[in-house]
Amino acid sequence: MYTRRLIQAARLSMILAFTSTVAFSQSVISVSQKGIVPNDNKDDADKINQLIASAPANSTLLFSDGTYNIGSPIILKSNITIKGTNPNTVIFRQTGSIANWQKNSAQGIITTSQNIVNDNVHVTNITVKGIYTTPISEAGSGGKGGICMRNCTNSSVKNVSTSDTWHGVAFYDNKGNAKTGNLIENAIVTRALSNSQPGNSGRPRGILMNSPYGVVKGCTSSNSGTGYFLGGTGIEISDCKALNWTVDNGYYIMVENCVVRDCQAITGSSSNQGKGSGFTIAYQKGGLVENCKAQNCGNYGFRIHVPQSNLTLRNNIATNCGIGFGIENASHPYPEMCDNLQFIGNQAIGNNLQGFFFRQMMNSKVENNTAKNNNQKGINARNRGAITLQNYTYGNIIEDNVCEDTQTKKTQLFGLYDYNKGNYQKAAVQQNNTLMRSATKATNNAANAINVVPNTIKHNSKFGQDYY
Fold first, then answer.
1. How far apart are CA 233 and CA 176, in angstroms?
2. Whole-angstrom distance, CA of residue 295 vs CA of residue 346
3. Are 48 and 68 in contact (CB under 8 A)?
4. Predicted confidence (pLDDT) per residue in 127-171, tens digit
5. Which helix (H) or strand (E) holds 66?
6. Which of 242-258 are b and which e, b meaning 16 or more Cβ less than 10 Å from the residue's Cβ?
7. Could you tell me if 179 and 212 are in contact, meaning their C-beta atoms sit under 8 angstroms apart?
8. Keywords assigned by UniProt (predicted)?
């Protein structure tokens, strides 16, 4: 009996110790009880930073409804969570002058230090409002981001809104971590329009994930410079919207082995008003773009940039864009090539020029796609074809695609049009001569010559003249 009581007492002691540890590890600190009161028109930044600095590891700082004035950057640290009681009514409002904020080297209204690894940092259930209601132009500088998570691992930004900033929500400045495990979820960004410095690196992005193996899901970026910018390795994005971006692209993706699913890029009421391309996938290897939609984009719906390779585009839709799906080669002329692209089951409908436009593409597959009612802006000698094969398209399999025009007034007068028809031998000589001249870095120029193989084409348009 005595032994049993000892065992029971030991078990109770263990339970109490475990409960105490859990309670400590999940410490919630109400900031109002620490003298940080909303709606008092006082600058709360210093008090918030002092509380962050003194809070024990794994603390959650809980902010009640109201507006908190932020006159200088909030600097987060490892093992800390900033949480509001309601994402719509807990507001962090940037205050002070643009000139004073320019003097601060921190890049965000809420941010982390880039000089140390910040692990297990979380921001959730808040709204951040910037002061840049009149955006800082590309020639200017000094814009600050909404939530800028620099050099972070295992961290997240969830259920937040930002407006009138440089970047809206961003993870970047990773210092060598192979897999960061960072997450942006249910973020709503509007008017990320101000530049932080002149040039491309200072351009505003609604949502930026430049963090290996980061995840972005369920977000909306609207009326921002570039909707989304993704860079690095293994990044996944799903169920997101880019709306009415003002510069560049809805999604600019420079990711090795990217995964893009169920996303939308919609801009303007027509392609004449829409800026840039919906989805740009550029320069890397590997990836999947699936079940996505681009609409009203002035350039391409889906733009693949040479030398992007080993990429699959499946079951996507491009409608009312300049070109539905295509390959861009700006600054990357032949001999650079796209290799092993897979266009499977996509639809290009009602676009200004071609539905599908291919160049500098080899060893790729174009199957079971539909090009319908395209060429809305007319046809000339250079843009024939609902599906067009331009320069340096060799060794590809193109079959079981549909070209049709169901309009009363037909515009898609050509179906599949191969500009290389009858010129493969001539093109092979030109191609390899060009390659030999340009392969100055190769130890053996002759070994770089490409064996030019004609495309394998099986096609018969429902409407429109085929030429191949």
1. 12
2. 14
3. yes
4. 999 999 999 998 899 999 999 999 999 999 999 999 999 999 999
5. strand 66-70
6. bbbbbebbbbbbbbbbb
7. yes
8. Lyase, Signal
